[in-house]
């Protein structure tokens, strides 16, 4: 399908978006459509600040939640490609004091296990309710947190384990995971608005405030605390995310520019 054909099929997209916003009681969204030949649609809708009637545009920063996770697996793949670590080498070989509740997982857990959500650990979401600890402190809790499935028994989504991936990257390479994402991905592909904290987001002027639906009304709520680890900590604009999708569709077209940072380890 050619780019012109894709564009023709998007004639009603704005009507659909506006209807969906009304149905979901959403104050503001940003939408992009990326075709293999490039960006074919990108726009903001509604308000990033409902009280002040400030509109969403293509550079409005949103929390991207668990869409952070693919950035971490991409960084891991780049580091593996450079020979800095291996998908299937037990983490304990890199970090000798690494421990989990399960002895088999302690000895055998790999980055592939974390990326594939097969550690046997649930998300342990209570850890995220009041995020008062660092990822380094969280990892010390792993021996006391019981799995609810056997190690490598099945896919089971685990925010907790994915939050450890970034911390472990830093332990092994000496470089924070945020810096890897910034230097290997964000800068080379032009993710100009992306960041890793509420403080960085709110230091700018173009960001979406958080809202919740209560009794058929849309209410502004406080920002949550920054999430430790690499499970869901990033913030970005739709322009950033369109660049990210294009990067993936083109199979890492700018990877050569990013590898220089890896080689400097």
Fraction in beta strands: 5-15%
Q: What is the distance, rounded to the nearest whole angstrom, between the alpha carbons of the first and last residues? A: 42 Å
Order of helices and strands: HHEEEEHHHHHHHHHEEEHH
- Main β-sheet description: 3 strands, antiparallel
Please give the radius of gyration in angstroms.
20 Å
Strand order of the largest sheet: 1-2-3
* Helix run count: 13
Number of separate strands: 7
CATH class bucket of the largest domain: Alpha Beta
What is the overall shape? Answer: globular
- What is the name of the CATH superfamily of the largest domain? DD-peptidase/beta-lactamase superfamily
Portion of residues within helices: 40-55%
Mean pLDDT: 88
How does this structure look, described?
The protein is globular and about 55 Å long. Helix 3 (69-81) packs across helix 10 and helix 10 (177-189) packs antiparallel against helix 13. The chain has 2 domains: 3-65 and 191-263, 3-Layer(aba) Sandwich (Beta-lactamase), CATH 3.40.710.10; 69-177, DD-peptidase/beta-lactamase superfamily (Beta-lactamase), CATH 3.40.710.10. It has a 3-stranded antiparallel β-sheet with strand order 1-2-3. A two-stranded antiparallel sheet has the order 4-7. Strands 5-6 form a two-stranded antiparallel sheet. The protein is α+β, with helices and mostly antiparallel strands. The longest helix is centred in the middle third of the chain and has 15 residues, at 159-173. The chain has helices spanning 3-9, 13-24, 69-81, 91-94, 103-108, 111-115, 126-129, 135-139, 159-173, 177-189, 198-203, 238-249, 255-263; strands spanning 28-35, 38-49, 54-55, 62-63, 211-214, 217-220, 235-236.
């Amino acid at each position: 399908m050619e780019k012109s054909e894709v564009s023709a099929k998007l004639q009603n997209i704005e009507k659909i978006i506006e209807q969906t916003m009304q149905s979901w009681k959403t104050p503001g969204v940003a939408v992009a459509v990326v075709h293999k030949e490039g960006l074919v649609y990108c726009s903001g809708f509604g308000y990033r600040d409902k009280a002040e009637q400030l509109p969403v545009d293509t550079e409005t920063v949103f929390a991207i939640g668990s869409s952070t996770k693919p950035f971490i697996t991409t960084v891991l793949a780049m580091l593996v490609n450079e020979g800095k670590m291996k998908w299937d080498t037990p983490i304990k070989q890199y970090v000798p004091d690494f421990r989990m509740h399960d002895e088999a997982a302690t000895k055998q857990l790999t980055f592939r296990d974390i990326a594939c959500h097969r550690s046997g650990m649930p998300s342990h979401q209570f850890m995220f309710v009041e995020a008062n600890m660092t990822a380094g402190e969280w990892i010390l809790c792993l021996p006391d947190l019981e799995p609810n499935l056997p190690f490598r028994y099945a896919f089971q989504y685990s925010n907790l384990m994915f939050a450890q991936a970034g911390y472990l990257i830093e332990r092994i390479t000496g470089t924070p995971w945020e810096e890897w994402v910034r230097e290997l991905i964000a800068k080379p592909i032009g993710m100009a608005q992306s960041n890793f904290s509420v403080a960085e987001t709110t230091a700018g002027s173009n960001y979406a405030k958080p809202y919740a639906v209560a009794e058929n009304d849309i209410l502004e709520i406080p920002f949550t605390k920054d999430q430790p680890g690499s499970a869901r900590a990033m913030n970005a604009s739709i322009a950033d995310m369109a660049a990210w999708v294009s990067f993936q569709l083109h199979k890492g077209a700018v990877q050569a520019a990013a590898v220089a940072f890896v080689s400097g380890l």
